[in-house]
Specification:
The protein has 427 residues and is α+β, with helices and mostly antiparallel strands. It is built from nine helices and 14 strands. It is elongated and about 85 Å long. Bound molecules: protoporphyrin IX containing FE and 2-acetamido-2-deoxy-beta-D-glucopyranose. 2-acetamido-2-deoxy-beta-D-glucopyranose binds next to loops. The chain crosses the membrane at residues 237-258, 265-283, 303-321, 341-361, 367-385.
Amino acid sequence: MKITSQSVLASALLGTSLVSADPLGPCPSGAGGVCYSVGVPPSSASANSGNIYFQIKAPSGFSWVALGTGRSMSGANIFVAYTDGNGNVTVSPRQGRGEVQPQWDQSSTAADLTLLAGSGVASDGSWTANVVCSNCQSWSGGSMSLRGTSAPWIGAWRKGSALATTNKGVSITQHGGGDHTQFTLDLTQATIASDSNPFLTSRETTGGGSGSGSGAGSGGGNGITIGEGGSSRATILAAHGIIGALVMAVLYPLGSLLMPLLGRWWVHAAWQFVSFCLMWVAFGLGVQSAKDSGILFDQAHTILGTVVICLFAVQPVLGFVHHRQYVKIQRRSAVSHAHIWFGRVLIVLGIVNGGLGLQLADERNSLVIAYSVVAGVVMLCYFLAKGFAVLGNKRTSSAGFGGRTYKEAGHGHSYDPSRRQGDNRYA
Ligand code: HEM
Ligand SMILES: *[C@@H]1O[C@H](CO)[C@@H](O)[C@H](O)[C@H]1NC(C)=O
């Protein structure tokens, strides 16, 4: 075989994928030096089962650091590592069941994890878990191809005092809102030389091969892709939150205010209809997010939100029936009051539900405060304007004419909602 300069250049450029003998994994940005690394022996890759090796490295000051296979907590095979109090570490196999604490998996299908040489707590308090898993190609919640080119992984970490326990079932405190990552690994680039602990070479300190050890937290070209899927999930969740909050705390109250303010039913109806459509968009995005994280309909926010949004469906009907009746009988009917009060109650419930959503997402306080202030100010405007409108109507109707009037028909003929000044020409 002739070795050309091109082939030398190509193998130099492609590096690991040709000579591939290094584990692969990221040091997620914002994780304060936490690094993950995964290695797959050729025998396991070809059989698509058998040992895989992984490493979790934590600087001092971490209560626990976890790695898992899967796209989200729900259904993931999770490996939680923490110090054991004797200079070594404990690795606990757990099952992800949504965004709640994963519990120690003691079933027969639990990940079979063995701690390897090189694990332990260093003198500076940093620690390393070198682990072999003999059955990580499948678990009760899913499976992973050991030769997958974009195998999904998750990671999470929690700063705090060392857990220092050998108890695999110890209760761990929840990670912060941003203290987790999702990434995919091209496992064909994580191939190690043989079925043995790959973390005893000098490379272990770089946190993985392929130059990812710098902890840049960005992937690309080296078999590691950070946040793929995760980032689109974050976008979906953010869109759900922004549209939902806008609809409940701003658009619906303003649309309601337009009715007494302008007195044109069709302006109100059109405005609320747009809000109504946006509400369903927010609902769809919310359902998608909840599915992704496995919390569909099992949290206060997702349950109340679903109920409130379904109840909103009757509002346009009530509004329309009210309108038809008004045109006929020239005064409010029971349906009118139902539409008005049902609408008000639902808007308030919707605003409360937005607050529950922010709580569920573990959102930063500044955002919670901003949301509360905006919702509060808009509702205050609504009730103040209503108050003035009522006062205005009292005054003007006692004066006999004018003031704040409704134009139900929208073609310029006014009527007084207090019925003292019905307009016969109202069609
Ligand atoms: C989800 C959609 C809707 C919501 C949340 C909603 C909400 C409200 C609220 C809170 C009020 C009371 C306003 C006030 O304090 O004066 C109101 C009044 C009214 N709405 Fe709607 N509305 C919706 C859709 C509609 C539609 C589609 C129509 C018409 C076809 C309509 C017709 C009216 C009318 C005519 C009034 C005035 C009733 C009166 O003061 O006698 N609404 N709406
Ligand atoms: C931690 O435990 C593993 C597995 O028993 C062992 O190989 C390793 O040497 C231990 N580390 C220390 C620092 O004792």
